[in-house]
Design a protein that fits this description.
The chain has a domain of 88 residues: Nuclear Transport Factor 2, Chain: A. With 215 residues, it is an alpha+beta fold. A hairpin with an 8-residue loop joins strand 7 and strand 8. It contains four helices and ten strands, in the order αβαβββββααββββ. Strands 1, 2, 3, 4, 5, 6, 7, 8, 9 and 10 form a ten-stranded antiparallel sheet that branches.
Length: 215
């Protein structure tokens, strides 16, 4: 990447806010398929948290069935009750897909287990919502450049944050998201520990796996 380091550092917060705020906070409400209504035995089940790419492509397929011209806008790690996210793996992943022709977007989730009453195992689709189109801070993700999975991105980001984490023991990862802005030529992973005001955040190139900057 040719972006100057100071601009990259400034972009850490720009990307973080764009990924969190660009699509709103609508909840997924309708299954994309007909999931079995079997209660999850999360308390006794072996951990099955997973990295992002396989769930993403399953959500992409479901979204493509909704609108063939979909564009991926955001991919985010979420929490699933009874399952602990670890090292870039998660029990729940959420992706935002937008259709330029429909001027709508939908949130899709992939869960590793049923957690009644609201979470279903597999892919679930949210209701279509109005979409105002791409912005410089929330651009479509170039999927041809999406090479680095969430676990590898986490490793790169956590290696960079190692000294800060030693000085701040117990700080949990609070965000791990994939997005793209006009500041970069391809998709970028955004990782954050603690809060934006008092935490540590890092950007990792989702094509090469290289650290782009931190704050």
């Amino acid at each position: 990447m040719s972006t100057p380091l100071c601009a990259v550092r400034n972009a850490v917060f720009t990307l973080g806010f764009a990924l969190v705020l660009s699509m709103g906070c609508s909840k997924s409400t309708s299954p994309a398929a007909s999931p079995a209504a079997t209660p999850a035995a999360a308390a006794t089940a072996a951990p099955t948290v997973i990295a992002a790419k396989n769930p993403f492509w399953m959500m992409y397929k479901a979204a493509h069935d909704w609108a063939p011209d979909i564009e991926a806008i955001r991919l985010s790690q979420k929490d699933l009750q009874g399952y602990k996210n670890s090292a870039g793996d998660a029990g729940l992943w959420e992706a935002a897909f937008a259709s330029p022709s429909l001027r709508q977007y939908r949130l899709y989730t992939y869960a590793v287990a049923d957690v009644p009453p609201d979470v279903f195992k597999g892919v679930t689709a949210g209701m279509p919502m109005a979409w105002g189109g791409e912005t410089r801070d929330a651009m479509p993700i170039d999927l041809t450049l999406f090479n680095v999975d969430s676990d590898a991105a986490f490793q790169a980001a956590s290696a960079d944050a190692a000294e800060w984490l030693k000085r701040n023991p117990g700080k949990e990862l609070t965000a791990l998201e994939l997005g793209q802005t006009a500041k970069f030529s391809g998709p970028v992973w955004y990782a954050q520990w603690g809060t934006k005001a008092g935490g540590y955040s890092a950007l990792v190139d989702a094509t090469t796996g290289k650290l782009l900057g931190h704050k």
